[in-house]
């Protein structure tokens, strides 16, 4: 029996778009690979290289974590290729725009002159949204406001028309949508294009030393991702709801369905080079990465255990 310790960051990192490994556990896919995965947490999560789960991997307290390849790219520019992405998880932006009322004919140009409340204030999402506005000549035409830190207050401000749109992950929006407070307007996934938003990450040397265990992990996650693609959100919610205690069941179904429809979940464990390069270019354009120092795909991505 192989064993891996998976540090997930703090409790806030356990979002519904990160359900593939929970599904693999629920379906017995890890067990079928003779693999035991121990899930641990950190005192703090990570929007940056210094976030809780990344040091746990770097310090060998954990074998792997899940997060943005942007962290691996930034770490490469600062310290070299210590970290590798080895298995896909989220293949597009999980962020959405929501408003008080449904807008079935919404187009990005409709944001001109509007106020968008960046409720989450999460680095990757904010940078990506600003990049998207710039690509459409809207950066100076949209008032992007930082969230207050009080999610309920921010959602109420949108619901009452004090501001026009909320920008947040569907994980956070779904309960307000289920309660009838907000309506989803647009996924950012299609607008921003396919990018390896989140991937499973490990130290390069640990990937080599524990190759069989990581290959088993990737095969199990690949099968979980295939399951997500062939089952509806109600079935998926039934399989993973115990990993999200306190999260409303109706919101879980709404959120998972929105992510399935937007094709946010990766189709398999593979991280395509052109999607990685698109993301690195986006992050360079947005100012997160140093443009003069390219981040090479083959130095930062290892495809561990591609399923048969």
Sequence-ordered SSE layout with sheet pairings:
Layout: E1 2-7, H1 20-26, H2 29-32, E2 35-40, H3 53-58, E3 64-67, H4 69-79, E4 83-90, E5 95-99, E6 115-118, H5 123-135, E7 143-146, H6 151-159, E8 165-169, H7 170-178, E9 183-187, H8 188-192, E10 198-203, H9 204-209, H10 211-230, H11 233-240, H12 249-261, H13 273-285, H14 297-300
Parallel strand pairs: 1-2, 1-3, 6-7, 6-8
Antiparallel strand pairs: 3-10, 4-10, 5-8, 5-9
Helix pairs in contact: 1-10, 7-12, 11-12
Give the structure's gist in a few sentences.
This protein has 308 residues and is of the alpha/beta class.
Give the number of helices.
14
Output the structural class.
Answer: alpha/beta
Radius of gyration: 19 Å
CATH 2nd-level architecture of the largest domain: 3-Layer(aba) Sandwich
Biggest β-sheet description:
5 strands, mixed
| Dominant shape | globular
Highest CATH level, the class of the largest domain: Alpha Beta
Unreliable spans are 44-51
By DSSP, the count of extended strands is 10
In CATH terms, the superfamily of the largest domain is Periplasmic binding protein-like II
Helix/strand order, N-terminal first? EHHEHEHEEEHEHEHEHEHHHHHH
- Largest sheet strand order: 2-1-3-10-4
User: What is the mean pLDDT?
Assistant: 92
What's the CATH topology label of the largest domain? D-Maltodextrin-Binding Protein, domain 2
- Portion of residues in helices? 40-55%
What share of the residues does DSSP label as strand, in percent? 15-25%
Instruction: State the oligomer.
Output: single chain
Amino-to-carboxy terminus distance: 20 Å
Count up the domains: 2
